[in-house]
Amino acid sequence: MVQYFKVQEQRFVPAMSPNEAFWIHLDNPNDEEIKQLIERFNLEEDYITDLQDADENSRMEYDGGAVLIILRVPLYYRHRSATIPFATAPLGIIAVQDKLITVSFFATEVLTQYLEGKHKPFNITQQSFLLQIALRTAIYFLKFLKEIIRRSNNIETELYQSMRNKEITRLLRLEKSLVYFSTSLQSNEIILERMQRSRWLNQDPDAEDMIEDVIIENRQAIEMTNVHSSILSSMMDAFASIISNNLNIRMKFLTSVSIVLMLPTLVASIWGMNVALPLQESKYAFLILMGISAVASTLVVLYFIHKNMF
């Protein structure tokens, strides 16, 4: 799908044709839409097709009159069937002629407020809009990191009483998401620093201050990701031991119960043999044997309580 937007009172509003559009957004475009865009702006085909690869790295390229910037943006998979809840994907940004083109083959929330026209007014140029996207990318990384922290805290509460691997698996998925975040943020930082030195970006006098803010936000997200990745890794090791310890405690309890129940069984087995036994002529034999079983079991229970086995 291709969407066209023009600038009106420092906001994006839908445009009727590509000629009057300042911003052209391609959301999971088909082959025909890609072909038309390439022919219209004389772009390299791999500017678009490379973005179909979810593992495409961040980069910045110049080709004639076009500038390509690929940023890694965060994704949030809200449905339960997702392998991992958070991941990253490439977002292509192409500055060509007097227009800015964005291309995404993956569902990301970074551009949502601009697509819906709900963003704050700002002086819209190619450079300023690019930096706004980069800033929103860093902000969403931080937002999703907070969600990862919230989920890990909830799992931590469940793990204290758990003997299953389910919670550990959930932590592993969050840790995998943090690895994706860390790699993508570091890749973005390299591109942001390269952009900061580029003559193209410095054509906008306001870009210098703004890119400093973007780099600071991105570094904050990197530090936050690294810290919580370390915490999560330590939590997984610790809670693997907790699960094993919880299982050992349950097994110790069940073993103790088995020993207590074994004593009445032993007494009943002995006096159930088809041979001459003491008390076999007594009318109180059953009560005496039950008393012996109860006393023996009680003494064992008291011993186990003394040894903290119950």
Descriptive report:
This protein is an alpha+beta fold. The protein folds into two domains: 2-245, Beta Polymerase, domain 2 (2-Layer Sandwich), CATH 3.30.460.20; 246-306, no CATH class. It has seven helices and seven strands; from the N terminus they run E-E-E-H-H-E-E-E-E-H-H-H-H-H. Strands 2-1-3-7-6-5-4 form a seven-stranded mixed beta sheet. Strand 4 and strand 5 (66-76) form a beta hairpin. The chain is rod-shaped, with a radius of gyration of 33 Å.
Total strand count, please?
7
CATH classification, class level of the largest domain: Alpha Beta
Largest sheet: 7 strands, mixed
Q: What portion of residues belong to β-strands?
A: 15-25%
- CATH homologous superfamily grouping of the largest domain: CorA soluble domain-like
Structural class: alpha+beta
Assign the CATH topology of the largest domain: Beta Polymerase, domain 2
As laid out across the biggest beta sheet, the strand order is 2-1-3-7-6-5-4
Query: Strand-and-helix sequence, N→C?
Result: EEEHHEEEEHHHHH
Using only C-alpha atoms, the radius of gyration works out to 33 Å
CATH architecture annotation of the largest domain:
2-Layer Sandwich
Proportion in helices: 55-70%
Task: Give average pLDDT, whole number.
Answer: 83
Query: What is the number of helical segments per DSSP (H or I, 4+ residues)?
Result: 7
- Runs in which pLDDT lies below 50 for 5 or more consecutive residues are none
The total number of structural domains is 2
How far apart the termini lie comes to: 65 Å
**Quick one: overall form?**
rod-shaped
